[in-house]
Amino acid sequence: RTCQHQMTVTPTSADEVAALAELLEGARDRRAACSALVRALVPSVGSWCTLHAREDPRRVVLLAAAHADAGAARRLRDEERRRLRDLAELPAGDLEAGCLVARVLRGGAPRRVAVREAGDCVAVAGDVERGAMLEAMGTTSLLALPLRTRDDGGVDAVLTVGRVREAAPFDDADEAHALRLARVAGVALRALARVEAAQQAH
Questions:
Q1: pLDDT averaged per 10 residues in sequence order, the chain, 202 residues
Q2: 167 to 74, 96, 164, 184: CA distances (angstroms)
Q3: So what's the pLDDT on residue 80?
Q4: Which of 5, 101, 108, 115 could bond to 155 as cystine, CB 3.0-4.6 Å?
Q5: How far is it, in rounded angstroms, from Cα 25 to Cα 53?
């Protein structure tokens, strides 16, 4: 079922940015920070949120997922993991024409998508099954945001936020606000990566 709620995003809110920074800085490790990140964006920014990362040129993994409906969150995680097992088998060049996450990983720029027709979710998802899942959740608008979680500065993760029928589509202000949150998340995840690398070196 789709969730019945309204978005409460305040695009100019410095408080939300500061709160996210504090939340992520307090995480015990990168895994906990990733889970905290997607939960923090639901429902204030979107109805659901996923975080994907590229482990190497041929492998993309789902790090965390959240949904305002707990049952939908489980289905989202299960379906993403199933689909990403297939995605991991694709040559890197094929990812460029694949799903929204793959396109952001390849291009490094944010993407905002409005779902207006039945086939739009399939085009976003890159396959029929996940497109059907997005449609079943009532997804009408998506933001896919590039994250830089490593010190080399390259885009190696994508934060995707979706809204459903009960919420207004993402606009320019929403995108600008979400990008600020993504930058904060990238800073925090890079710091945690450095800590974990130092721990592994000893």
A1: 42 79 92 94 92 82 83 71 49 54 90 88 80 85 93 88 91 95 95 88 78
A2: 21, 30, 6, 25
A3: 67
A4: 108
A5: 20
Q: How far apart are the C-alpha atoms of 159 and 87, rounded to whole Å?
A: 17
Phi-psi sector, 161: left (phi>0), alpha (psi -120 to 50), beta: beta
Phi, psi at residue 181, to the nearest 5°?
Answer: -65, -40
Side chain identity at 37, as an amino acid letter? L
Backbone angles phi, psi at 67, to 5 degrees: -145, 145
What H or E segment, with its residue span, contains residue 163?
Answer: strand 157-164
Could you identify the residue written with the tokens 């949904």? Answer: 67
pLDDT computed for residue 81 by the predictor: 63
Tell me the one-letter amino acid at 96: E
> For residue 83, what pLDDT is reported?
57
DSSP label at 155? -
- Which residues fall within 8 angstroms of residue 21, CB to CB, at 6 or more apart? 184, 187, 188
Q: Please report which residue ranges of 60-166 form alpha helices under DSSP H.
A: 70-87, 92-95, 100-107, 120-125, 128-136
User: What are the distances in angstroms from CA 29 to CA 154, 191, 192, 195, 196?
Assistant: 21, 10, 6, 9, 8
3-class DSSP state for residue 118?
Answer: coil
Radius of gyration of the chain (CA): 16
Question: How far apart are alpha carbons 196 and 194 in whole angstroms?
Answer: 5
